[in-house]
Amino acid sequence: MSNLRDEVAVASPDADGAEVARRPAPGTRERILKVATELFGKHGVRAVGMQQLVDETGIGKSLVYREFTGKDDLVVAWLHQMRAVWWDMSAEVVARYPDDPARQMLGIVEMVHEQVAAEGYFGCVYHTTSSEFRDPQHPGHQESVRHAREIREQLRGLASAAGVVDPHRLADELLLIIDGIYASASVLGPSGPSRIGVELASQLIQQHCSDALPAITTIGH
């Protein structure tokens, strides 16, 4: 554990030059979220307390609570950060296949497979959070539901753009594959059943978009 108290606390002198307050240094919030991501991934969201976060970051408790009012506030900020990562990656996929919504849909599934194959994958953060906080009113649960709905709408939009007769059905089928990839890889790894997710998605898209995509082979062994 690194001790960053001297680095992240900036004293504000009064008119006589005396230190009267400490305020977070630039990057404090990002540092807290980075450590929270590591801890949540290793131990789960519910198991990590604010004191553990204070200890691991080396940031004073008052500064941590100045950035986040409590655990729920931290969890929501963390999920927002993860959401931004998803949409940045998704935007790159869409830009890679301009004017080809069928290929864009497959690209999103490929992106998910790459995520679960990456070193350090512990499971989908939204699946984990929604299962740990099952109360529909919990802000973490609500953020997880919101993210899933947004992905569903994205897939519906792409399916509609591809001229699919029933875009809602294709979107739901692809979302089931995406969820299955995340869930399977967290238990059996990327070489388990999740390895055929991209192939299944390609077959579904081909069924809905005749001749839209060339046949592809299974990823992995």
Automatic annotation (TrEMBL):
Name the record gives this protein = TetR/AcrR family transcriptional regulator
Q: Which PROSITE patterns match?
A: HTH_TETR_2
Name the Gene3D superfamilies for this protein: Tetracycline Repressor, domain 2
The organism's superkingdom is given as Bacteria
> Organism source for this protein?
Kribbella pittospori
Give every HTH tetR-type domain span: 26-86
Q: Which UniProt keywords apply?
A: DNA-binding
- Does the record bear Amino-acid biosynthesis in its keywords? no
Name the DNA-binding segment ranges.
49-68
Segments carrying the region annotation (Disordered) are 1-25
Q: Print the organism lineage.
A: Bacteria, Bacillati, Actinomycetota, Actinomycetes, Propionibacteriales
Report a single Gene Ontology molecular function.
Answer: transcription cis-regulatory region binding
